[in-house]
């Protein structure tokens, strides 16, 4: 079976002259759980943004299910982007709205317009689906609560439910546990990996927590100063490689 995501010779130099990515290549198969590691500034978020085409790569290709995203027009690109559910460090909820309303927004663009996902207008079918997504993250009982009246772990669960409402086949999670305490962080990683396994989704997750990377990933890809320096199954990675990766003497900026 072909790769779900193929990245070929991907490079990104920002307008300020910082080269954040250099010659990145990898293939990711359906259902793989990949953890992306690397120093602050090593290019991880830039790689995510180039993969989802929110940032235009300077060179190289990104194929999602065989389709080269940089070659698509805006409309077709939107269709392909819907396959990618993105989870952020800071949850990106709308805090003065209810949990249910935030989850309903996940359907926007997939089956519904902005007005159709607004709580007073949403169909009972959409609401049922949103409740089902909330059940999957264990928060159905909080559907009516305002999003700002939740703990960090609960906010991330709402963000995951909203992502599920989008029905993506790929999860891109950029430091999903960086704002959470260790217990809540582990719970969120366990939830994300369980959902990905149950639904056969492919997951790529940026982490700074090595223990979580080794516990929840199948494979680790690591960047250093914009280059891929490690790509191996978790079982083949030893402590020495990880210590080298996080060598605190290394220059932390991108290569300019
Ligand atoms: N919009 C931008 N314009 C210019 N330079 C940028 C931009 N975004 C990122 N950079 C630079 O590109 C390099 C890679 O940044 P990026 O955010 O991808 O790293 P990261 O690995 O995600 O870091 P962190 O772990 O801190 O989130 C850094 O040197 C950063 O300063
Ligand atoms: Mg980042």
TrEMBL record:
SUPFAM superfamilies from the UniProt entry: P-loop containing nucleoside triphosphate hydrolases (SSF52540)
InterPro entries, sorted: AAA+_ATPase, ABC_transporter-like_ATP-bd, ABC_transporter-like_CS, ABC_transpr_PhnC, MetN_ABC_transporter-like, P-loop_NTPase
Gene3D superfamilies (UniProt xref): P-loop containing nucleotide triphosphate hydrolases
One Pfam family named in its UniProt record: ABC_tran
Domain ABC transporter: start-end pairs: 5-250
An example Gene Ontology molecular-function term: ATP binding
Keyword set, alphabetical order: ATP-binding, Cell membrane, Membrane, Nucleotide-binding, Phosphonate transport, Translocase, Transport
Protein name: Phosphonate transport system ATP-binding protein
Organism: Shouchella xiaoxiensis
